[in-house]
Design brief:
Strand order of the largest sheet: 1-2-3-4-5-7-10-11
CATH class: Alpha Beta
Number of domains: 1
Helix content: 40-55%
Bound molecules: 1-deoxynojirimycin
Largest sheet: 8 strands, parallel, barrel
Number of strands: 13
Structural class: alpha/beta
Order of helices and strands: HEHHHEHHEHEHHEEHHHEEHEHEHEEEH
Distance between the termini: 35 Å
CATH superfamily: Glycosidases
CATH architecture: Alpha-Beta Barrel
């Protein structure tokens, strides 16, 4: 009797220590984006986009003054890249199409660049030959340059051009691509880059540009969704949605009602501004009220936050088949004095003093920390706030700033964040169906240039051949995709 009890307790102890297994239908993937890896910026008929122009004309905006003219040279090395992806044993590859590589002028006309179409066809076909599903982002920040002087995403004219571009992509590739992401991280596009790229538009009126951009981006997403839904879905049978970056906001003092209120309010300004109109209805009430109040105090005749008409609200609401989430950041907020009313800024509208805890486990880069519980909290918050949608984690990853192959810190990061994901699935019953590691390989990290390295594979940027070398984390990730457990 006694020995039976001991065996049972031992078994229980042992089985609790066993890591959870990801469900059978769960998918693993790896991601990149066009400007960050392709290179070939001015060949084969590609047009220029806002990042080509900014890196060339205002290189001071980029930490190391670099650009992505060549970067990983994936325009020529795509076949080798697919071998690297294959080696990881992943189910899908998330990449983006460069709008200006297909429509060099930005406008959707008969001037379409066959070389661009051929390039993406080769990638899609080869992925499928190897049983790797293509997950395609239509807009990963590389807006054709032509729209820049018009105010980029702050101009509603971009909506119909984006919609026409999306239609063409469904026509060209939708027979084989079944997972579409319209727009990547609208908060970065609107709040950080002010609809274009921050400093190249220094005259953009703050506190106005961010909302005009959000308004147009949400509408552009909805238009692309409706085009897919009406014209393509019945034949192509794919899925389409948007990917939003989700910071987890913590109250400085969890027992202060005001700090707790501000944490939720900042979630709504960062996430709800884009997601609420799509997964619920209209902008979040707290955002509408707060911008209206602050605008009134600042002497504006109307709120700086544009209003959706009744028809628009209905047209936007429900335009998703799943929700894409990128997760990297955690922030703390505490109550603070209201700034003077002479200044407008979304950062003021969202309220509170915002900061990070210097004691959080660091990564190789200051702003990125290791806080896996934040991912789990974000997932739970999404489940609760948006009626339990199907979730794709479309990005999550670890940055270092050194040329290293033995990246034990990255393995530690993935281990913890994958664990948070599987816990959210099994213990919190969040409907997460995929996890995407950012990134396949080191690449051009926007304003951080080549100073931030997120790759599972190292890329030697001083070698004209841009040689790729697997880091230690490749072996780890392979074990995960193979065993569907974290070990
Ligand atoms: C999110 C962006 O989508 C991606 O382009 C970027 O490289 C990663 N965050 C890391 O910052």
């Amino acid at each position: 009797m006694m020995s039976k009890w001991i065996i049972a307790s031992f078994y229980q102890l042992f089985s609790q220590a066993e890591p959870y297994k990801f469900p059978d239908h769960f998918k693993f993937g790896v991601a990149t984006s066009a400007y960050q890896i392709e290179g070939a910026w001015n060949v084969d008929g590609k047009g220029f986009h806002i990042w080509d122009m900014a890196t060339h004309n205002q290189s001071h905006l980029i930490l190391d003054g670099s650009n992505a003219d060549i970067t990983c040279n994936s325009y020529y090395k795509w076949e080798e890249d697919i071998d690297l992806i294959k080696n990881l044993g992943v189910d899908f590859y998330r990449f983006s199409i460069s709008w200006a590589r297909i429509f060099p002028d930005g406008y959707v006309t008969n001037k379409i660049n066959q070389a661009g179409i051929d390039y993406y066809n080769k990638i899609i076909n080869t992925l499928l030959e190897h049983n790797i599903e293509p997950v395609v982002t239509l807009y990963h920040w590389d807006l054709p340059q032509i729209f820049s002087p018009l105010g980029a995403w702050t101009n509603p004219a971009v909506i119909e051009h984006f919609a026409s571009y999306a239609r063409k992509m469904f026509q060209l590739f939708g027979d084989r691509v079944k997972m579409w992401i319209t727009i990547n991280e609208p908060r970065l596009v609107c709040q950080v880059f002010k609809g274009s790229i921050g400093d190249i538009t220094p005259d953009f009126p703050l506190g106005i540009a961010e909302y005009l951009c959000a308004h147009n981006i949400v509408k552009a997403h909805a238009e692309a969704y409706h085009i897919y839904d009406k014209e393509f879905r019945h034949i192509q049978k794919g899925k389409i949605s948007i990917t939003v970056d989700m910071t987890w906001w913590l109250p400085e003092n969890a027992s202060s009602k005001e700090d707790v209120r501000l944490a939720e309010q900042n979630m709504q300004f960062d996430i709800g501004l884009y997601v609420n109109p799509i997964l619920n209805y209209d902008y979040p009430k707290v955002v509408i009220d707060r911008v209206a109040e602050r605008s009134r105090l600042e002497g504006f005749p109307e709120s700086r936050l544009p209003k959706f008409s009744y028809q628009e609200k209905n047209r936007i609401s429900g335009t998703y088949d799943f929700l894409g989430i990128n997760h990297y950041f955690t922030m703390i907020v505490k109550a603070s004095q209201e700034p003077p009313v002479s200044k407008s800024d979304i950062d003021i509208d969202s309220q509170g003093e915002k900061f990070r805890d210097p004691n959080w486990e660091p990564t190789g880069l200051e702003i990125f920390k290791v806080l896996p519980e934040s991912l789990r909290n974000v997932l739970k918050w999404v489940k609760k706030t948006y009626h339990d949608p199907e979730i794709y984690i479309t990005e999550n990853g670890y940055a270092d700033n050194r040329e290293i192959i033995d990246d034990d810190e990255r393995i530690n990061y993935f281990r913890k964040y994958l664990n948070a994901t599987v816990n959210a699935i099994i213990e919190d019953k969040v409907n997460v169906v995929a996890y995407t590691a950012w990134s396949l390989m080191d690449n051009f990290e926007w304003i951080l240039g080549y100073e931030a390295k997120f790759g599972l594979y190292h890329v030697n940027f001083t070698d004209p051949n841009r040689s790729r070398t697997p880091k230690k984390s490749v072996e780890f990730f392979k074990r995960v995709t193979k065993t569907r457990t974290i070990n």
